[in-house]
Amino acid sequence: MSTGFTGKVAVITGAGSGIGRALAVNLAGRGARLALSDVDRDGLEATAVRCEARGADVREDLLDVTEREAVLAYAAEVKAHFGTVHQLYSNAGIAYYGEVWREAFKDIERVLDVNFWGVVNATKAFLPHLIESGDGHVVNVSSLFGLITLPAQSSYSASKFAVRGFTESLRQEMLVARHPVRVSCVHPGGIKTSVARNAMVADGLDPDSVARIFDRRMALHSPEMAAETIVEGVRRQRARILIGGEAKLFDLLNRVAPTGSQRFWAWYSRFLAVAPRKGTA
Ligand SMILES: NC(=O)c1ccc[n+]([C@@H]2O[C@H](COP(=O)([O-])OP(=O)(O)OC[C@H]3O[C@@H](n4cnc5c(N)ncnc54)[C@H](O)[C@@H]3O)[C@@H](O)[C@H]2O)c1
Fold first, then answer.
1. Which residue ranges have their beta carbon within 6 Å of ligand 1?
2. Of 28, 29, 76, 258, which has the most beta carbons under 10 Å away?
3. If you ran DSSP here, which 8-state letter would residue 57 be given?
């Protein structure tokens, strides 16, 4: 199996913004052929224009990763269009902020639907094509919160821990079956994207406050740096791709002191507390 990108067909979900867009532009510069999708038509178009300016062969589709039948049909269309599929980057995702006692069941389900089931739908839809290519790679985007937890992140963490478990087991299956598919799980730290501005928050909490705290205190790295780290990790066939020094440090802390670190984050989260919406308790 090769580790190059030239001529490879790469599928990226959530390509209309942030890490997905930066990944598309990075892979375009490396000569990959791209199947880009998102629910955001304008964002997707803007990404495609930038990739085409780099000379890439680009296919763009409006696709909601939670719609299983549409994802299955999309995989067949991408295969028919390019003749093969080598790499799947399951990147589409949404953030959520809210304590368990505030969260509505429907919000928890929505976060799991997009972040976990979206990854499952895309992985199952593309896996046969990746195996058939003889040179496949599944790249599923989890999070630092797929390694550690913070208060008010139960749904998001549940979805990202689930992505990690699903992805690590898939990797083992590919090894056992000797299928020609490598598998990587990506754990970004804080990346400066629209993720917090696009986030869902529990009723009664102020969404602007979530975005401000994320932008000021957590978003440390550019999407371009995140994309370069992911692509380098893919090239080096890394099973785990951690993005940012804080992701590596907090992962280490969690492994050295799994319960003590929970108390530390509970204490630290007081500095990240989100204000209630005006007029609510
Ligand atoms: N930004 C960070 O700090 C950070 C940290 C850890 C993990 N991540 C993960 O990285 C991934 C990319 O996030 P980002 O920071 O670039 O955010 P972003 O909001 O800038 O981009 C996410 C993209 O996903 C798309 N999307 C949302 N729901 C979708 C759906 N149902 N179907 C298809 N597309 C959908 C959005 O339209 C958007 O274009 C997400 O999975 C996120 O959870 C981000």
1. 13-14, 16-20, 38-40, 43, 63-66, 91-94, 114, 118, 141, 143-144, 188, 190-191, 193-195, 198
2. 28
3. -
- State yes or no: pLDDT of 281 exceeds 50: no
Closest CA to 34 of 124, 50, 181, 140: 50
Mean pLDDT of the chain: 94
| Alpha helices (H) along 178-244 | 207-213, 223-235
Contacts of 165 (CB under 8 A, 6+ apart): none
Strand ranges inside the chain, DSSP E: 9-12, 33-38, 58-62, 87-90, 96-97, 136-141, 181-188, 200-201, 240-243
- Structural domains of the chain, with CATH: 9-272 (3.40.50.720)
Residue 45's pLDDT is 98
Q: Residue 14: is it exposed, middle or buried by C-beta count within 10 angstroms (0-12/13-18/19+)?
A: buried
189 CA distance to ligand 1 middle (Å): 13
Q: What CA–CA distance (Å, rounded) separates 169 from 120?
A: 12
Q: What is the pLDDT of residues 103-136, one digit of tens each?
A: 999 999 999 999 999 999 999 999 999 999 999 9
Task: Quote the CA–CA distance of 246 and 65 in Å, as a whole number.
Answer: 29
pLDDT in tens, 239-270: 999 999 999 999 999 999 999 999 999 998 88
Which of 11, 13, 38 is the best mutation target for the ligand 1 pocket, counting ligand atoms within 8 Å of the beta carbon and taking the most?
38
Candidate from 71, 157, 195 with most ligand 1 atoms within 8 A of CB, to mutate? 195
